[in-house]
Write a structure and sequence with these properties.
By secondary structure, this protein is an alpha/beta fold. It is 44% helix and 15% strand. Bound molecules: phosphoenolpyruvate.
């Protein structure tokens, strides 16, 4: 039976105590959930949330990490630090990192390879802006982001990569791609992956959709053949809105 990967990205929200409270609530309400579940609190709350999630079915994710193992990199957080406190997954290449902090595919690729070298799973985010979509550049943007982000990643390491397709115009805006439109882009992502890693790997790759996923649209999105999960921002900040998404079936 197909299993979906539902991930919550808490972004720059919640104090440590607020994060612990939500993690405890989710731990109780999602115990036994049939989907793969991850939550990504802010860096400051990761250690405390890690302790809450011990023994639970919810994976701990980080929202970003530095491209170096350690050293003189003011303000960065290292893969070794994340691993040390129980982080299992890292979100890389989120559109907010690409657009607000000008992260390039080359930088994202260094982070992807470093995370995988330390056995941390990666959610690699890709997505086009509205202007790029309207200019007919959707496939070239997505193709470049996928190929750039995955450069030098061997097939064995690629098995630990999830792709998240997140159209930038749908993030935090309340606008969602129609399930059919999203599925078409997911199919394109799969064809790029097939070119890089072969048909079997492409078939087995989890491709999440992200962009204003809510309880009332998740089932339709997940019913599409190429949509294997969701990366959820705003609706992951409360158990009342995240639990129904995780339990969409
Ligand atoms: C996100 O930031 O990854 C995201 C999909 O946000 P939202 O669900 O709020 O659109």
């Amino acid at each position: 039976m197909r299993s979906y990967f539902i991930a919550g990205n808490w972004k720059m929200h919640k104090t440590v105590s607020e994060s612990v409270e939500l993690a405890q609530d989710l731990g109780t309400k999602l115990a036994g959930c049939r989907e793969k579940i991850m939550i990504a609190p802010a860096f400051t709350a990761l250690d405390a949330v890690s302790k809450v999630l011990q023994g639970s079915n919810i994976l701990l994710g980080a929202q970003n990490m530095g491209p170096e193992e350690q050293g003189a990199h003011t303000g960065e957080v290292s893969v070794l630090m994340l691993k040390d406190i129980g982080v299992r997954v890292v979100i890389l290449g989120h559109s907010e990192r690409r657009h607000s902090y000008l992260e390039s595919d080359a930088l994202i690729n260094r982070k992807v390879r470093l995370a995988l070298a330390h056995d941390i799973e990666v959610i690699l985010c890709v997505g086009e802006t509205l202007a790029e979509r309207e200019a007919g550049m959707l496939e070239s943007v997505i193709g470049t982001q996928l190929k750039g982000g995955l450069a030098g990643v061997n097939p064995e390491a690629f098995a630990k990569v999830t792709i998240a397709y997140e159209p930038v115009w749908a993030i935090g805006t309340g606008k969602t791609a129609t399930p059919e439109d999203a599925d078409a882009v997911h199919a394109y992502c799969r064809s790029v992956i097939a070119g890089l890693y072969g048909e079997a790997a492409a078939k087995g790759t989890i491709i999440q959709y992200g962009g204003s996923v809510k309880a009332d649209n998740v089932a339709a999105l997940m019913s599409e053949p190429n949509i294997d999960g969701a990366l959820v921002g705003g609706a992951s900040l409360k158990a009342d809105t995240f639990v129904p998404i995780a339990q969409f079936r």
